[in-house]
Structure formats: C-alpha cells, structure tokens
Amino acid sequence: NPYRRAQFLTSANAPQHLPPDEGFEVAFAGRSNAGKSSALNVITDQKGLARISKTPGRTQLINLFEIDAERRLVDLPGYGYAKVPEAVKRHWQQFLERYLRERQCLTGLILLVDVRHPLKEFDRQMLAWCAASGMPTHVLLTKADKLKRGPAASTLQQVRRTLDAEYPGATVQLFSALKRQGVDEVREVLDRWMKL
Ligand code: GDP
C-alpha cells in the first residue's frame, strides 16, 4: 500500500503556497462531517494523518500529503456550514475554485457523501463542475455501515443512476471507514489516476 507512505507536506491558503504544479494530485472533497478525515486515515493506514487537517486554523486550508516525490493526496476544506466570516469564506471559496480550475497536476477528485444524505446541493455543484471540466470523479458513499445491506445497495443503485443521467463518467461505491469496507476499491481508483 503506497498510501501508507503519505506524509503531511504543507498547507496552503493561496496559490503561491502550493508546491510546484507537477506530478499527480488527487483531491478529496466533501461537506463537513461527511467522513473525509476518517476515509483518509483508513486509505493511508495512518490513524492521525487527517487530524492535521482538523487542527484549528487548518480547517480552511488546502492540506497536502505527499506519497512520493510525484504524488500527493489533497484534503480540500470541508464545505457546508462552516461558521466563518463571509469575507473569509469568499476568500477560500475563490482559492478552492481556482485550485480546481487551474491545477494542472490534479488528476481526479474523490467526493465524499454520507450514504444517508446523498447528493446535496454542494455535492451537485462539485459534480457539475467536475463534469464541465472533464475531471475524473469518484463518489464514496460513506458510513455505509449505518444502513442495512439492502438500503445501502439501493442507495448505491439510485446514486449510480443519477450520476449516469446527469454527471456521466462519475463512478460511485459504498465505503465504511469503521468496517474498512471499500478500501481496496478506492485505492484501485487512486492507483489508476496516479499511475501507480
Ligand atoms: P469529516 O468532517 O468529513 O472529516 O468527517 P470525520 O471523518 O471527522 O467524521 C465525522 C463523524 O462521522 C465522526 O463522528 C466519525 O466518527 C463518523 N464517521 C466517519 N466515518 C464513519 C464510518 O465509516 N462509519 C460510522 N458509523 N461513522 C463514521
């Protein structure tokens, strides 16, 4: 598992603080509380990795984790209902949009969505942007352990149908950090995107 080597590299709140635009980056996005930190911890087999992104002052930054000299995982700020001043929000939204639009080495986006609350407005915004810009996108329906097998499977089917109809090309899977469900599946997507 190459993701085990992931190490905190840097935080950025402006383009000039990002590392050189080279190699491969995969970004993780999701509404606050979607389970992004837990997923990053499980994928990298490191309990405390994403805790860094949760330390006060870093939650509105893009946090980068290096796998090797050419490959990085990128934790995007959780969007949703952050209690921050409007001006601050505007600043990081602009930076985020710019990062997504301009970053050449960004090869794909993992969108984390709570399986019990699929495709809220923010998720749809993200998917629409990805579809418009041809960005490969993979949705993790997180906390799958919170639903029984039947309802989880039908949510998966329903989301897959919506993606096929409205955001073609995007893929989706069930995921549980708690049960370590779907970890190999998402790692395979990362491998493909990062040419590992
Ligand atoms: P983030 O805000 O997106 O980084 O979300 P966190 O990873 O911090 O998770 C938010 C909450 O959901 C925490 O209370 C986690 O313990 C819980 N959580 C995350 N992943 C899972 C999961 O796979 N199963 C269950 N049952 N709870 C989870």
The multimeric state of the shown protein is single chain
Helix content: 25-40%
Radius of gyration: 16 Å
Q: What's the number of domains?
A: 1
* Elements, N to C (H/E): EEHHEEHEHEHEH
Shape: globular
Fraction of residues in β-strands: 15-25%
Widest sheet: strand ordering: 1-3-4-2-5-6-7
Query: How would you state the average pLDDT, rounded?
Result: 92
User: Pairing-aware structural class of the strands and helices?
Assistant: alpha/beta
CATH topology: Rossmann fold
Question: How many beta-strand segments?
Answer: 7
The named CATH superfamily: P-loop containing nucleotide triphosphate hydrolases
- Main β-sheet description: 7 strands, mixed
- Low-confidence parts, pLDDT < 50 over ≥5 residues? none
Structure described in brief:
By secondary structure, the protein is of the alpha/beta class. The chain has helices at 36-44, 51-54, 86-102, 121-133, 149-166, 183-193, and strands at 7-12, 24-30, 62-68, 71-75, 106-114, 137-142, 171-174. A seven-stranded mixed sheet has the order 1-3-4-2-5-6-7, sandwiched between helices.
